[in-house]
Amino acid sequence: MRQIDLSRPELALNGGTPVRRRPWADNFTTGAEEKEAVMRVLDSGYLSKFEGSHTPDPPFSFYGGPEVQALESEWCEYYGCRHAISMNSATSGLFASIGSLGLGLGDEVIVSPYTMTACALAPLIYGAIPVFADVEETTGCLDPDSIERNISSRTRAILVVHQFGIPADMDRIMALAKKHDLKVVEDCAQAHSAEYQGTFVGMLGHIGVFSLNVNKSIQSGEGGVCITADDDVAYRLALIRNHGEAVVGPANYQNITNIAGFNFRLTELQAAIAREQLKKLEGLNCHRLELVEGLSGRLRDHAFLYPPTGRDGCKSTYYVYPIRFDPEKVDITREQFVSAVNAEGVKFYQGYVEPLYLQPLYQKQQLLKHGFPFAAPENRDHNGRYDRGICPVTESLYFRKMIINEHVRWPQSKQDIDDLVYAIEKVTG
Ligand SMILES: Cc1ncc(COP(=O)(O)O)c(C=O)c1O
What we know:
alpha/beta, Aspartate Aminotransferase, domain 2, four-stranded antiparallel β-sheet, 13 helices, binds pyridoxal-5'-phosphate
């Protein structure tokens, strides 16, 4: 058991001089190129050019303006995918994905409890039940064994998240999907250009969903992109994005289930910014991975801290840096450790997100009036379980082990990462 004396006077916690007083830079990934792109759009006068109606002739305004359409074709070129459908967020992309797959009452979707809340809400708003499977301790991604245990005769899809930019175990997940005839939606919000055995994540399942929100590897303030190889799914995503219920009649499109079209449209301004950001993705990821390697190399000496190791044969892109703290190997708690290190001028967060099933939405099983959709007759005896204890690995990560750091990104430098390491070394002694 490692012993750490937190009463030492030199620790900032006890009034000593902190390792760092300078603030940490935010995720500013934009520059002159984005400014020029925004000016181009402003000069054009068209801040958005979507039309919420069937537009069979060029310029096909049902599919957005020139910047939106250019972003989508550049996204297809970069990823090598057949269709890219931009959205105004990944949340919208997840909702549209579940809608486009025709899921609803009586269906179950296996989701992670250790991720962004929209992943479980997306099935629920269409009336399908989210069933939480547990995650792997080392990656935070869905554990295929737990997925398998949760598959029932009602399961129709798996919504898998490449958590922290670490690819999920796609071979096993796709094998389960094939065996049980399930759709797979890949949430790549945190995993731009991460690779699973040489293939970009998002290209392995039926739909991949990316986020362009302000914190992500590349960003346009808000935004998202769905990718798919399926022509019909791509059209359905476009219908759900843009008032599809008014479009299906004139377009003579027959499969109208779930085609309640929202306004999930990206503006021309955001699309123009996203196009520039896509060009910077490789460079930003390289920079991030250099910082990650530097930090991981120097954390290995601490017997109670485990740097992330990713997945064999895969490229992880580390949207944030997840460290596991082993409370059995040290005589201070995670909370004491994080407080002491943060007092030195760095920022670590404990736990990441609370297991989603502990939210009031699941505890009370109430989204719509009268407990719907949980209480719908089609969902009677559904297999969603929301009691504390159902996902023990998730709970141990959240309550005891996980520590997150967000400094491992542009414009931080190797010298900034030195401060992180010094802060940890000062506290551990
Ligand atoms: C895993 C995951 N999925 C979905 C989202 C939602 O992204 P957006 O903010 O673009 O709606 C996020 C954003 O935090 C995320 O991290």
